[in-house]
Known about the structure:
Elements: H1 3-17, E1 28-36, E2 46-52, E3 55-60, E4 63-68, E5 71-76, E6 83-86, E7 92-95, E8 99-102, E9 107-109, E10 119-125, E11 128-133, E12 136-140, E13 144-146, E14 155-160, E15 166-170, E16 173-178, E17 181-184, E18 198-204, E19 209-214, E20 218-222, E21 228-230, E22 241-247, E23 250-255, E24 258-262, E25 266-269, E26 282-287, E27 290-295, E28 298-307, H2 309-323, E29 325-326, E30 329-330, E31 333-335, E32 344-346, H3 352-370, H4 373-391, E33 403-405, E34 421-423, E35 429-432, H5 437-453, H6 457-476, E36 480-482, E37 488-493, H7 496-501, H8 509-527, H9 530-541, H10 545-548, H11 565-578, H12 585-599, H13 605-615, H14 621-630, E38 650-651, E39 661-662, E40 691-692, H15 696-707
Antiparallel strand pairs: 1-28, 2-3, 3-4, 4-5, 6-7, 7-8, 8-9, 10-11, 11-12, 12-13, 14-15, 15-16, 16-17, 18-19, 19-20, 20-21, 22-23, 23-24, 24-25, 26-27, 27-28, 29-30, 31-32, 31-40, 33-35, 34-35, 36-37, 38-39
Protein name: Two component regulator propeller
Signal peptide: 1-21
Keywords: Signal
Amino acid sequence: MNFKDLIFILLIVLATNSARAQIETKTYFQEIKSDIELPDESGENVIKLFHIDGEIVVVSSNGIYTKQNKEWQGKTNGKNWRTACMDENNHIWLAAENEIRSDFGTRIYLPESAKHDTILSLLKTGTTLYVGTTNGLLTYDEKWTDTKIAKGARVSAIQQGKDDEMWLATNDGLYRRANGIWLNLDDNLMASGNKRTYFSLAEQKNGNDIIYGSMYSVGCISGAGNHWIWRGADGFPYGPVTTIHPSGKALWMGTDKGLIKKDSTWHYYLGKRWLPDDKVNDVLVIDDHTVWVATPKGISLLRNVEMTLEQKAAIYEEVVQKRHNRRGLVNASRLSVPGDLSTSKTINQDNDGLWTATYLIAECFRYAVTKEPEAREYAMRTFEALERLETVTGIPGLPARSYALTTDSVLQSKSPHPKVWRPSPDKNWQWLDDTSSDEIVGHMLAISLFYDLVADDDQKIRIRNLVERTMNHIIDNDFHLIDYDGEPTRWGVWHPDSINHSANWIYEKGLYSLEILSFLKAAYYITGNPKFEKTYHYLIDEHGYAANSLQTKMYGPFENSHSDDILTYFSYYSLYRYAKQDKYWSTYKKSLERTWAVSQPDRMPVWNIITSIALNRNCDLHIALEELQQYPVDLINWTMLNSHRWDLQEDRLSDRSNKRQATQPIPTPESGIWRWNTNPRQFDTGANGMEERSGTYFLLPYWMGRYYNLFD
Length: 712
């Protein structure tokens, strides 16, 4: 996301929400990434960052640059700088392959004896310049000295410790100089698991503690004896660490695959959600809430911005209105250039009806909480989109999956079950057939909430008529959705013979029983038509649908379909609203208890909230709140890779898509942005930055939680 655009949005949001700050008093820190724009002449490869006299100095492979009065100043003095250091006088020393140059003009070349070596690291202390190379350590103080230390080894890092201590990270051991004597600690002290190979060094507590990065761990040699080590089993995400930066209570670490922060917990930043390139060259901590990260493709600015969840919701609302309203339908947008929101274009998808319904649900709760005219306007517009999905087909009670004007270009479905675009009766529209139960679940819940929380008298009449048509279509067609071709749709089947007796529907038996019962109770509530209540009891008494609901959630040893969870929990919530006084409510609660026991570890906020409401107890609401806070502001569907990580244990059973998965959910800031109906344990997800999601995953649970006073 463009930094200027993001700051502008945040300023507007913070200003417009200040008038109702008393509604939500609790703030948190939202992590936000933006890109630092560099001068063209600097190139993209930023190798070092320094903070000098209140200004940030950027060292790239081309030179040294400082931003003064919002303008970059600097000198392009080369095209091959590899590393740099800053001395006690705030002068910068640059190193190329075999040349060193200071920012005040001093130029030094490696001695003839080292002309075939390459400089890897620098440290300037006093009048001595320490130079780590691919062939050991050299020093320069008016003349070159070959120290003979680490001869034949790569000296990747040099660090001054307390007093005259000096430390070297090499691929043949960790070296320490104390009282003028060098010792390779790997000869008689360090763990053999380090493989004598070290990549980075840093100091803490005035040099009393030395932190090192080795092949498979990060560790600390403490002057007070309080040594420690972090490995994958301790939560260390990945290594080796090539740059280390202690700051206050946090430790920042860069690797060739991402950035790590360790404070009270672990944080891992990988992919273009956080970094322009996965390789981290350097880290500059500005303060407790601001960090610059240097990579071969530029600089990321990571900031912790204080805000409330309501302010965050306002950001997502703006995103929806700008880029996700396609003729009233709300879903993802496609980007023709990865990550470039200016190239966003709304597109049709197979389940536009369901995802639009999630937005309507959010707006209904929002209006009920705030009474804002804007919320009512958006809810009305979205209800009319769901209404049009049914009227556009010309088949009473059959909603389309999606619609578009006849003149609109549309994407063809890639589903294994064929879906065809059909003409509307007036030929002005086209609509996508083969409607699923997904649409009915979403429509029925969203429309019933609109009926209860938003609709005026005229709209309630329209809703009653719409619900009558929908449920009559299903009941009168033997509990099927009948498509344009006169045949049942693939997933629009609730008939007892199929649900109870067909091998093809064993998996869906519990879920589809729960669905149809929730439809009938909502329909009876809205219309008062006894036909729907009678049918409800018929399916329970004659075909055991209430008892079937006890098998709703399928899980190991069976396949676990996370895409069914939204249908499951929406049905539970609808039954909570309209069947609480029903004698079968105890059965539905028992079913929900069973389902919750399986999905509780998934950390999905809307499931936690619905379960807490329906069971009338706190079902991990603190986790729901954490997840809402951690959900990224950047809604671009970046590719997020986690299969290489050391801290995540792999489940040897792949998921239902035969994808590799962890034994626990991937932390939300490190996982894919699309979480509604996906496996939260899947290692690798995303769409290469080619689409943006709408934010309803946040908006629905947030406003639902506010409506029920579950949090501020």
